[in-house]
Amino acid sequence: MKKTPFVTKEKLAEIVREVPTPFHIYDEAGIRRNCEAIRKAFAWNRGYKEYFAVKACPNPFLIRIMKEYGCGCDCSSLTELMLSQAVGCVGDDIMFSSNATPAEEFRYARKYHAIINLDDFTHIAFLEKVTGDLPKKISCRYNPGGMFKISNDIMDNPGDSKYGMTKEQLFEAYRVLKEKGVEEFGIHAFLASNTVTNEYYPLLAKVLFETVVEIREKTGVEISFINLSGGVGIPYRPEQEPNDILEIGEGVRRVYEEVLVPAGLGEAAIYTEMGRFMTGPYGGLVTTAIHEKHIHKEYIGCDACAVNLMRPAIYGAYHHITVMGKEDAPCDHMYDVTGSLCENCDKFAIDRMLPEIAVGDLLFIHDTGAHGFAMGYNYNGKLRSAEVLLKEDGSYQIIRRAEMPKDYFATFDGFDVYDKLFV
Ligand SMILES: *Cc1c(COP(=O)(O)O)cnc(C)c1O
Predict the structure, then answer these.
(1) pTM over the 0.90 mark
(2) Which CATH class is domain 28-280?
(3) Looking at CB atoms within 10 Å, which of 15, 248, 367, 369 has the fewest?
(4) Measured distance CA(184)–CA(47) in Å, rounded
(5) Would you kindly state where each structural domain of the chain is located, as residue ranges?
(6) Same topology for domains 28-280 and 281-409, yes or no?
(7) How many CB atoms lie within 10 A of CB 271?
(8) Whose CA is nearest to atom 9 of ligand 1?
(9) Is there an atom of ligand 1 within 6 Å of 280 CB?
């Protein structure tokens, strides 16, 4: 499918007059449409809830939009918990996913009555020790090990992943938790990332639903919520077919009817913790081409760099690029599109066929709405960019200002770099 930016060149030209590039821009209308589709896809399940994976796009303005559709927050750090609180998510609206979690974060999660998802058997004792007791409601994370396959295609390798408990540990965990007075139980698994197929959730659901039946047989514990977590992907490449969330919801429903309902477990709530699918396609990184360089290869240097979008540098991930205003021009030039970090991996695209780019052209790097800005860092002293929301009515709002040097220097307490340099 041809990839088209959700914002016009004229609108970007207007925004750039107030907000210098680079910046991330988000599409409110797209986020809302997607929230509605998800709600519809799982409407068959009475307890359904999406816990937006805050790490994918930790901006309270965006989380607040999703909250309007009943979404909660999936958190795994102190500041993510605080962000959730700030948008009014507390108690059952927060899933706290632990994994090598510090005591302080468990305490904070308990204080605001978040649902805790235990990553390991030893966390039962740890949680009890550091918070004084166990909550009445708790979830456990399952890792079945081995390879996770769809037909013969390997989707991911849970056997190599640091998360979750083995099946034996899981059974033992529920026995111990029940003995210690826990009353409500959940189960969670995340077995494959960025799956671009409608079969992932239904297959995962089958694994989890069958495990839920087994847990009741072996331990007497009845699981009341089943968390399919994240992993629903998006088509980063134009030739990829997007997931159909309605078909995914229907696929999960069929497995639910097949496995849980006959077992008398037809009251169980389905939870999801999608991050990428919620915001990924509804964000773009806007950058200006500021240099061209002709050596052994052709380079376009832009004012964004890997600190604004790290995925290409660390995973070699593909992000589609549109040269604004040249959507219909032939892609007859091969470029490496780079940032300015002193790291050769700082390339948004390698050997990419694009229209001829002139210095000053605006580039729209697609699908940066999840794990984009969020993965940002300060290497080379680069500062984090602004984030802009393109609103439904066509206006725009700055939902995070760009970092300034004073932010970068703010943590050198006792060494007043900023005062010395900038007064
Ligand atoms: C990262 C993560 C998610 C979201 O994953 P996506 O691939 O963005 O959907 C959900 N749950 C947990 C526990 C995670 O760590």
Answers:
(1) yes
(2) alpha beta
(3) 15
(4) 14
(5) 28-280, 281-409
(6) no
(7) 26
(8) 230
(9) no
